[in-house]
C-alpha cells in the first residue's frame, strides 16, 4: 500500500489545546485533529475497507470518519507528525492478516504428572480425616 496516497486523503484541523501553557494556550491552536473517511477512500480496495471497518469499528464514527488527535507537544508541526505516524501505524495494524492459531497437543507426560499430583493431593486430604471406627 502506498502511504503517500493515503496521506493525501487525510484532512487536518488545528484546534485550541487544553492543559498547561499559561496565557499562550488561549491564543494558539496547537492540538491537531486528523480526519480520514474510510468509506470514501479511493486508495483502499473494497477488501481493505471492509477489513478496516471491522478491525477499527470502535474508532470509526457512524459517518465513516476515523478521527485521531494529538496535543502532546506545544508545537503544531510536531503534533501533526505524531498524529500522522499514529494514523499510519493504526491503518497498517488494521490491515494485518491474522494468522490462524494452531492448537498444540498436550504431552502424555504432562497429563500423567497432573493426574499423579491430583492423586497425591486427594490422598493427603483423606489422611487428614478422622478414621471410621464402625
Automatic annotation (TrEMBL):
Keyword Transmembrane helix set for record: no
Positions with biased composition (Basic residues): 104-128
SUPFAM superfamilies found in the cross-reference section: Peptidyl-tRNA hydrolase domain-like
Keyword terms: Hydrolase
Domain of life: Bacteria
Prokaryotic-type class I peptide chain release factors domain: residues covered: 7-128
GO biological process: one example: rescue of stalled ribosome
InterPro entries cross-referenced by the UniProt entry: Pep_chain_release_fac_I (IPR000352)
Chain segments carrying region Disordered: 99-134
NCBIfam families per the UniProt record, alphabetical: PRK09256.1
Protein name in UniProt: Aminoacyl-tRNA hydrolase
Amino acid at each position: 500500500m502506498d502511504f503517500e496516497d493515503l496521506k493525501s486523503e487525510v484532512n487536518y484541523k488545528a484546534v485550541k489545546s487544553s492543559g498547561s501553557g499559561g496565557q499562550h494556550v488561549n491564543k494558539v491552536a496547537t492540538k491537531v485533529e486528523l480526519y480520514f473517511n474510510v468509506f470514501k477512500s479511493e486508495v483502499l480496495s473494497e477488501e481493505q475497507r471492509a477489513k478496516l471497518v471491522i478491525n477499527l469499528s470502535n474508532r470509526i464514527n457512524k459517518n465513516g470518519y476515523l478521527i485521531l488527535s494529538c496535543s502532546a507537544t506545544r508545537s503544531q508541526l510536531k503534533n501533526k507528525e505524531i498524529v500522522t505516524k499514529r494514523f499510519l501505524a493504526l491503518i497498517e495494524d488494521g490491515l494485518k492478516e491474522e494468522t490462524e492459531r494452531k492448537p498444540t497437543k498436550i504431552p502424555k507426560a504432562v497429563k500423567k504428572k497432573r493426574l499423579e499430583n491430583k492423586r497425591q493431593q486427594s490422598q493427603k486430604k483423606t489422611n487428614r480425616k478422622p478414621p471410621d471406627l464402625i
